């Protein structure tokens, strides 16, 4: 189990316990439960990189314990 | 950090069909088959694969949590210990009796002890005072005065310290150096260093030919390098002076001379009086005149005296009225005063003129009346006088002699009125004599005027002559100079006046001719143009009415008329050019006019243009001269050329001479 920090740099910051093998989709569901925003509005990305795809796992993106991920508003584009 | 709790996370995971997260408190989940497999090959190192690492993750996390908890517990314990210790130390200070503890002593005991306490307090105070005193003494002993500075060297010249304050500090030296302490001012040192730097930049010459004082040593320019720099320094002696000063004084070296400055300038601030003090005023004694001037003065005095002595006698004599006083003097001058140089002559003449004028003005009506009366009773004059009167003006009629000089002319010009008066008088007298024919005065009158008793033609001639003379006197009779025309007699007179003065010449005739030519040329030209125009018009009319015109289209008509116009224009211009070549004579006259409205001649125009071109005019003196000249010209234009009231005859003479381009005027 790892702890991943999600931060939108606007005042929302949360630590989510998860497994590194979890798909991004599941992680998003957990983030949504935590910050109270629907899943389709959540976009996760590492700083300066392209957004995570739902089908890949956190491990695919090299997310490990204590890593901070940027949270942005997904407008659907 | 309100994190998502693991339970909640597990709920979500379960709903999404994922394996739940391991809960730390609960028992480890049953090892999966993969884990058992990894556990089997134990020869591998524990975290070689992702799987093993992921399996160990929970344990690692658990370990981390435990460590954190242990650290926290330890910190808490340390904190508690520290708090306890502080608390103990806080209470440790409060030893001895508190107010509540003392309360058990009774009042009597307190009273008894009070004396002892008072003594103790006094003793403490005294101790304190003694201590203070000792401290004060110590401080006084420590005080640093100028006497402490005796024998301290200062690394500057005394003259370098100007009026501003300088802070001296101890100079930096090596700790083990055997030099004494030396004081120096940082700012002054900086200045010196700067000066040195500047000096070093200058090229120094070994030999300076302009050096006044002879060189003291050979190759003096290397002195500094060999011996090192000479430092200027003085030593304080602790009494406000320097040791060097004292030594120099002892050696008897004379001090440089002090310059005494007067403090009186401070008193000069009060406002000075505009008026001079009377004690300061010095009157210069007028010097005695030179011998020459005094001599001349004396002559004049004598004249006056003589005249004064004469006058009564003259009046008693029944001689003549007007020029009684002036006459004898005039005579005297012409007789016995011989003039050596012209200046003297002029001066004397000027003086006489002034005198005469004064005298003339003084004649009053009563005097004239009296003279009339006297003349009525006067005896006849000698005939030789009559001859002279015929030659000259009536003023000098009665003179026994004829004197013609500047003075007479001047005087003659002055008294036009008096002449007329005299003539009127004479006429009157004659009339009376004619009426009273029988008296003895009749013969006298006749003889007086004509030298002849008969009054026939002579009377007429005399009347004629008189009228002539009057006319001459009004027109300022001057032999050889015709009377000047005046502007009130019409255009001809005005032109005559202008011609006389040379302001206008009759060469305008040529100009007139040229002007007429030009006008004629213009008229011819215009006439030619008009006739051409007329011709064209007629031709156009003819064309319009022709049959061909009717058959042409509009465009053709336009073309046709344009062609005709061009032809006509060419013809016309050729004709005009012919006229031009034949008749046109341009009359070019370059006139330059300056800012005063004067016409400039070639030279002046060149000068003006040159000044304009160079943007620079004449200097002050030249300009002033020029302006004076212009003013003079204007004045000359304004005045009568023969007017003697302003300029006198000399002026008229000048004008005439200039006009005629001759050195003088001819007097007949």
From TrEMBL, chain A:
Species whose genome carries this gene: Massarina eburnea CBS 473.64
Keyword list, A-Z: Ubl conjugation pathway
Q: What is the recorded name of this protein? A: Ubiquitin-like modifier HUB1
Source organism superkingdom: Eukaryota
Q: Which InterPro entries match?
A: Hub1/Ubl5 (IPR039732), Ubiquitin-like_dom (IPR000626), Ubiquitin-like_domsf (IPR029071)
Ubiquitin-like domain boundaries: 2-71
Q: Which SUPFAM superfamilies match?
A: Ubiquitin-like
TrEMBL record, chain B:
Q: Name one GO biological process term.
A: maturation of 5S rRNA
Q: Where is the composition biased (Basic and acidic residues)?
A: 60-70, 122-139, 364-376, 509-546
Cellular component, GO, one term: U4/U6 x U5 tri-snRNP complex
Q: Which UniProt keywords apply?
A: mRNA processing, mRNA splicing, Nucleus
Composition-biased stretches, type Acidic residues, lie in 301-320
Q: Where is the composition biased (Basic residues)?
A: 284-297
Disordered: where is this region? 1-77, 121-158, 195-222, 269-388, 421-485, 509-549
Q: Which InterPro entries match?
A: HIND, SNU66/SART1
Kindly give the Pfam families that the UniProt entry links to this protein.
HIND, SART-1
**Biased composition, class Pro residues, residue ranges:** 21-32
| Compartment(s) of residence | Nucleus
Q: Which family does it belong to?
A: Belongs to the SNU66/SART1 family.
* PANTHER family listed in its UniProt record: SQUAMOUS CELL CARCINOMA ANTIGEN RECOGNISED BY CYTOTOXIC T LYMPHOCYTES (PTHR14152), U4_U6.U5 TRI-SNRNP-ASSOCIATED PROTEIN 1 (PTHR14152:SF5)
Q: What is this protein called?
A: SART-1 protein
Origin organism is: Massarina eburnea CBS 473.64
């Amino acid at each position: 189990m790892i702890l991943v920090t999600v931060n939108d740099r606007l005042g929302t910051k949360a630590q989510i316990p998860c497994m590194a093998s979890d798909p991004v989709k599941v992680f998003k569901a957990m983030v949504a439960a935590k910050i109270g925003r629907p899943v389709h509005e959540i976009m996760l990305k590492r700083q300066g990189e392209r957004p995570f795809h739902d089908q890949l796992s956190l491990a695919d993106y090299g997310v490990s314990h204590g890593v901070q991920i940027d949270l942005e508003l997904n407008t659907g584009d | 950090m309100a994190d998502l709790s693991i339970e909640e996370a597990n709920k979500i995971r379960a709903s999404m069909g994922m394996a739940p997260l391991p809960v730390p408190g609960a028992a480890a989940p049953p090892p999966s088959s993969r884990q058992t497999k990894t556990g089997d090959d134990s020869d591998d190192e524990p975290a070689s694969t992702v799987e093993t690492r992921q399996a160990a993750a929970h344990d690692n996390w658990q370990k981390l949590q435990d460590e954190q908890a242990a650290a926290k517990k330890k910190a808490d314990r340390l904190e508690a210990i520290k708090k306890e210790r502080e608390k103990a130390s806080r209470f440790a200070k409060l030893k001895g009796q508190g107010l509540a503890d003392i309360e058990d002593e009774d009042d009597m005991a307190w009273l008894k002890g009070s004396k002892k306490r008072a003594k103790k307090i006094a003793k403490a105070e005294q101790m304190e005072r003694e201590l203070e005193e000792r401290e004060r003494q110590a401080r006084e002993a420590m005080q640093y005065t100028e006497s402490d500075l005796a024998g301290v060297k200062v690394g500057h010249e005394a003259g370098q310290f100007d009026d501003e304050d300088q802070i001296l500090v101890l100079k930096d030296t090596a700790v083990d150096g055997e030099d004494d302490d030396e004081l120096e001012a940082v700012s002054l040192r900086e200045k010196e260093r700067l000066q040195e730097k500047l000096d070093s930049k200058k090229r120094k010459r070994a030999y300076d030919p302009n050096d006044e004082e002879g060189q003291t040593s050979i190759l003096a320019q290397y002195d500094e390098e060999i011996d090192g720099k000479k430092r200027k320094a003085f030593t304080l002696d602790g009494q406000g002076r320097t040791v060097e000063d004292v030594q120099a004084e002892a050696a008897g070296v004379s001090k440089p001379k002090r310059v005494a400055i007067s403090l009186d300038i401070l008193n000069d601030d009060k406002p000075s009086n505009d008026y001079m003090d009377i004690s300061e005023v010095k009157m210069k004694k007028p010097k005695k005149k030179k011998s020459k001037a005094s001599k001349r003065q004396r002559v004049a005095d004598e004249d006056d005296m003589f005249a004064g002595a004469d006058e009564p006698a003259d009046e008693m004599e029944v001689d003549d009225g007007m020029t009684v006083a002036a006459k004898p003097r005039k005579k005297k001058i012409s007789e016995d005063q011989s003039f050596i140089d012209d200046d003297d002559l002029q001066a004397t003449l000027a003086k006489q003129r002034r005198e005469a004028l004064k005298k003339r003005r003084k004649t009053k009506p009563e005097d004239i009346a009296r003279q009339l009366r006297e003349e009525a009773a006067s005896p006849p004059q000698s005939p030789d006088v009559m001859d002279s009167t015929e030659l000259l003006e009536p003023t000098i009629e009665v003179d026994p002699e004829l004197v013609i000089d500047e003075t007479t002319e001047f005087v003659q010009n002055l008294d036009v009125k008096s002449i007329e008066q005299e003539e009127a008088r004479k006429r009157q007298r004659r009339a009376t004599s004619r009426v009273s024919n029988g008296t003895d005065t009749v013969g006298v009158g006749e003889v007086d005027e004509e030298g002849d008793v008969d009054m026939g033609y002579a009377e007429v001639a005399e009347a004629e002559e008189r009228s002539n003379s009057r006319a001459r006197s009004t027109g300022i009779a001057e032999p050889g100079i015709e009377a000047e025309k005046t502007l009130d007699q019409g255009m001809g007179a005005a032109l005559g006046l202008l011609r006389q003065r040379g302001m206008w010449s009759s060469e305008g005739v040529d100009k007139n001719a040229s002007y007429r030519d030009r006008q004629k040329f213009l008229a011819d030209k215009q006439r030619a143009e008009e006739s051409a125009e007329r011709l064209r018009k007629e031709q156009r009319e003819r064309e319009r009415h022709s049959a061909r015109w009717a058959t042409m289209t509009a465009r053709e008509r336009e073309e046709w008329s344009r062609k005709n116009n061009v032809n006509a224009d060419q013809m016309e211009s050729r004709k005009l050019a012919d006229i031009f070549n034949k008749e046109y004579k341009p009359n070019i006259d370059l006139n330059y006019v300056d800012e005063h409205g004067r016409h400039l001649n070639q030279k002046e125009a060149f000068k003006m243009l040159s000044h304009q071109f160079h943007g620079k005019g004449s200097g002050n003196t030249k300009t002033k001269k020029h302006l004076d000249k212009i003013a003079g010209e204007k004045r000359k234009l304004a005045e009568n050329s023969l007017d003697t009231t302003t300029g006198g005859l000399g002026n008229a003479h000048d004008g005439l001479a200039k006009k005629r381009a001759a050195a003088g005027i001819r007097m007949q």
